[in-house]
Design brief:
- The structure holds two protein chains of two kinds.
- Chain A is built from 16 helices and seven strands.
- By secondary structure, chain A is of the alpha/beta class.
- In chain A, the strands form two sheets. In chain A, strands 5-2-1-7-6 form a five-stranded mixed sheet. Chain A has a two-stranded antiparallel ribbon with strand order 3-4.
- Chain A is globular, with a radius of gyration of 21 Å.
- Chain B is an alpha+beta fold.
- Chain B folds into two domains: 116 residues, no CATH class; 186 residues, no CATH class.
- Chain B is built from ten helices and 18 strands.
- In chain B, the strands form three sheets. In chain B, strands 8, 9, 10, 11, 12, 16, 17 and 18 form an eight-stranded mixed sheet that branches. In chain B, strands 1-4-2-3-5-6-7 form a seven-stranded mixed sheet.
- In chain B, a hairpin with a 6-residue loop joins strand 11 and strand 12.
- Chain B is globular, with a radius of gyration of 19 Å.
- Chain B starts with a strand and ends in a 7-residue tail after the last helix.
- The N terminus of chain B is likely disordered.
- The chains are: A alpha/beta, B alpha+beta.
Chain lengths: 362, 315
């Protein structure tokens, strides 16, 4: 808890918790807050939080307000593109195959408050493993092409990952990620796809499904702590914070979530997520929700690493030695979480060899 | 600290500003935005101080919109065929230019940044000038002679708001200055030299990706009014044609709407906000198509057009 955060970061985290804190900010404060929010890609979210309270919004000076308005307009346009893309995909996806929307597309189509201002870079679709080839073929038919051409990388995705390489279609702004699971098949924490499918929910008047709300939250946690290098991912924490705040109050529902977390082996990741949310976003965490805490060494390490990697920095503020070590550690951890030791060694050797060979060929 | 650069007696101040430009950066007030630019590219400073000579340049501003660096090439390219690199928030969004073209590189990069980030406004691709805060909007596709006409109008006493961006505020419907040096291309450079012998034109940058480019410095009066919005008064779509007799054809509002919308940087992005703002603009202002060959004729026609209109707002 003792980490020293920069004053503008304290401001930004404060406003995310309570928009009224924006009222006393000076113009130089605002400049730094806007830049940090932009670095974390949450400036449109920040705008919506302020806009929701007219007193707070009216207190925002003209210049920062302009940046927030621009961000909200941009985010609204991206949501519009997402809508159009999902509609056009309806006709491309094979009729008999069930498709679950995950992450941004799911938040958007469920009209969750957290989708307001959230910038999605891509569309994430989940299908059953046995439907993967047919879905991919249909997408290729519809003009979508893999962005990865290297055969080794293709094999890496297909054998060890939980998604195909990102796909793009000419004239389409958004990338498409086709998943058959929500965590790599080789990873430490791997929610069982069959269980996810069993509790999927149909969206009203739509060909798409979404995961059960508890699974959506667990997915957000597993994604952040296992599928990213943690760099600049405050946005993911903001998503998780909003989902925890929106949990139903009843004890039974919370206990069901806790047992789901255990069932998926995500206790430790869930604990870290709750801990970080509580610490930086003031998330009220019901006591029944806490899994058993991870060992002290793991907690210390994470407490040291997270503020140095996950929280945004002003562009001019260098990483520093601590930050550099933390981001290297986060990279190493990322790979370690995704693969068992043997496979990781093999993958590391292959990548290293290829890099050398490539350099030799130049 | 802040001080305009006007003459030889201000040489020490100029030295201090040059020092600021290299170290912590200088803040430039464009009206619609404030940029802080830092550069150690030698070729940049000379053109910069010449073309921004009337601007109030300062070491600090209460709120800076864009943090820009124009850096030198990396590694060998610092010395061998030196390059300039444009960075916004320490990110380099596009390839380096030759260091000798650092100034147009900066101008181009700033336009790009503004168009990317300032989606709180409808950004029309248009020259904007004003007489007593009544704005003349000149939307045009590239190559129609918009910059040349804009330059000539400023040299004939119009206040320049912008050569590139018509910055339309959605709710109020007025236009903000986005005051930058006017980029003149190829033959236009000499045309404007002949048109206004006292025009302050910077160095010519040969063979950029848009051909030869030279910039016209905004005049004192335009810089002094950089915080003064103007109300749209008339929309004119200009087209220069060699040898053509001057012709001014009224445009119906629907036609003006379409041409404004499709000459905008972010009309599609803004959705309904853009539609409403452009529809209001096209509905409120008379619009014309102007074909001309002689700049003098075009300037006089436009002056009469703007002066003859009933004053909508003189605020």
């Amino acid at each position: 808890m003792a980490e020293r955060l920069s004053p503008p970061l304290v401001c930004l985290l404060g406003i995310l918790q309570d928009a009224r804190l924006a009222q006393g900010l000076t113009l130089p404060d605002w400049e730094a807050v806007i830049r940090l929010a932009r670095a974390a890609r949450i400036h449109a979210t920040l705008g919506h939080r302020l806009l929701a309270n007219p007193d707070c919004w009216n207190a925002v000076p003209l210049q920062p307000r302009g940046h927030l308005e621009a961000a909200m307009n941009f985010a609204a346009w991206r949501r519009h593109l997402l809508d159009m893309e999902l509609r056009s995909l309806c006709s491309q996806l094979p009729a008999g195959i069930e498709v679950v929307l995950i992450k941004g597309a799911a938040y958007h189509t469920q009209h969750l408050p957290l989708a307001e201002g959230r910038l999605s870079a891509d569309i994430d679709l989940l299908v059953r493993r046995e439907d993967l080839d047919a879905t991919e073929a249909a997408l290729v038919e519809g003009g979508w092409r893999s962005t990865v051409t290297d055969p080794y990388d293709q094999r890496y995705y297909r054998e060890w990952s939980h998604e195909l390489p990102p796909m793009q279609a000419k004239g389409h702004a958004l990338e498409l990620d086709l998943h058959h699971g929500i965590a790599p098949v080789t990873s430490r924490c791997r929610p069982d796809p069959a269980a996810l499918w069993a509790s999927r929910r149909a969206l009203p008047d739509s060909r798409y499904f979404v995961l059960d709300p508890a699974d959506q939250l667990i997915h957000a946690v597993v994604h952040l702590f296992q599928d990213t290098e943690l760099d600049g991912r405050l946005r993911d924490l903001v998503d998780i914070d909003a989902m925890v705040r929106a949990l139903p109050g009843e004890d039974a529902a919370l206990r069901a979530l806790v047992s789901r977390v255990s069932q998926f082996g995500a206790d430790r990741l869930f604990w870290f997520a709750l801990h970080a949310c509580q610490r930086w976003l003031g998330t009220p965490v019901p006591s029944v929700l806490w899994p058993a805490p991870p060992p002290m060494t793991a907690r210390r390490l994470m407490d040291w690493m997270l503020p140095r990697t996950l929280l945004p920095r002003l562009p001019e503020a260098g990483l520093g030695l601590g930050g550099l070590c933390a981001s290297q550690l986060a990279k190493w951890r990322y790979h370690r979480m995704r693969m068992p030791t043997g496979l990781l060694l093999r993958h590391g050797l292959e990548k290293g060899w290829r890099r050398l060979a490539l350099r030799g060929a130049r | 600290m802040s001080c305009p650069i006007a003459g030889a007696e201000l040489e020490p101040a100029r030295k201090e500003l040059a020092h600021n430009l290299r170290t912590s950066g200088l803040c430039i007030d464009y009206g619609a935005c404030i940029a802080r630019v830092r550069s150690d590219v030698p070729a940049f400073a000379d053109a910069f101080f010449q073309l921004y000579r009337h601007f109030e340049l300062s070491g600090d501003a209460a709120f800076v919109d864009f943090h820009i660096e124009l850096g030198r090439g990396e590694g060998l390219r610092r010395w061998v065929r030196p390059q300039s690199r444009f960075l916004i928030d320490r990110v380099q969004p596009f390839d380096p230019f030759a260091a000798s073209h650092a100034f147009p590189h900066y101008e181009w990069g700033l336009n790009w940044t503004f168009a990317q980030r300032f989606n709180q406004y409808v950004l029309l691709h248009a020259g904007v000038l004003a007489l007593e805060n009544r704005a003349l909007i000149l939307p045009a596709i590239p190559g129609s002679g918009k910059s040349t006409l804009t330059a000539a109008l400023m040299l004939s006493g119009f206040r320049l708001l912008s050569d590139e961006f018509g910055v339309l505020r959605p709710r109020s419907g007025d236009l903000l200055p986005m005051l930058k040096p006017v980029a003149l291309k190829n033959a236009s450079i000499d045309v404007i030299r002949r048109f206004g012998p006292r025009a302050e034109i910077g160095p010519t940058f040969a063979a950029t990706r848009k051909g030869d480019v030279a910039h016209l410095a905004p005049d004192v009066a335009s810089v002094a009014a950089v915080h003064q919005p103007a109300s749209p008064a008339v929309i004119v779509f200009p087209a220069w044609r060699e040898g053509a007799a001057l012709d001014l054809q009224p445009q119906v509002p629907e036609q003006a709407f379409t041409r404004l919308a499709f000459n905008s940087f972010n009309y599609g992005l803004l959705g309904r906000i853009g539609f409403d703002a452009v529809a209001d603009l096209a509905g409120a202002c008379p619009a014309y198509q102007l074909t001309y060959s002689r700049l003098e004729d075009a300037v006089e026609t436009l002056r009469r057009l703007v002066t003859a209109l009933p004053g909508r707002a003189n605020g």
